[in-house]
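Recall that a protein's primary structure is simply its ordered list of amino acids. Everything else, from secondary elements to tertiary packing, is in principle encoded there. The following example makes that idea concrete.
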Amino acid sequence: MKGKPARWIERWIRFGFLMKGFVYILLGILAVQAALTYRQQAQDTQGVLRAIAHQPLGNLLLIIVAVGLAGYSFGRLIQAVLYPESDGKSLKHWFKRAGCGMSSLAYGALAYTAVEIIQGVKEESEQTQFWTAKVLSWPFGQWLVGGVGIGVLGIGITFFYRTLKADFRQRLKLGTMNTQQRTVVVAIGRAGYLARGIIFAIIGGYVMQAAHAFDADKVRSSEGALVTIKQQPYGPGLLSLVAVGLIAYGVHMGLQARYRQIELP
């Protein structure tokens, strides 16, 4: 894929990183508000989209966000199917492809949710619990749900690993920055991955608990994970730190939009 089509797709993917960052910055801001206000409820990414819809020109903003998230989803799909950034055939690279595929599905679904909100589709609460209950009713469903919980926990652990290793540096054009800028960029990325690791670890724990207890009501989304943090001793302070990390992750996505090395097949 050469020439203008490739440049157009690259710009769309970069715009996708930018819109993903926008969503996470808003998620972090709402989490800060929840930490500082007793009655304020934390939100997940779908809650952020609904909050955008309630703003002036909300539908227009949602269209822009949906287009961007679709671009991000498409970029992850390219990584999952073709993985142009690496020629490796090891098990590690196949795991990376699988992760890119799941990310593509997740953000494609989020873009679709934005379209549904624009169309006025009513919110269906507790969808996670509904589907968990459905899977639990299947033969070996309890094992399947438990496996999903382990997988989600594994994603959280992967984020912790990336926090320490800061492997995202390999995909950024750090050579265009001075030493101080590189230090700040890496620190922002680490803070963002740490916050996401905490949330995924909590969600994974809830899913495994649901499998063990055979009770779908124990499953929680990222909103539930943030509520759990708020309920701990010194919860508002802890939630504020995680919220700042989510904002940092959003900023990191913005930096990815600007400095990421994107290779198209």
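The chain has a mean pLDDT of 86. The first helix runs from residue 3 to 36.
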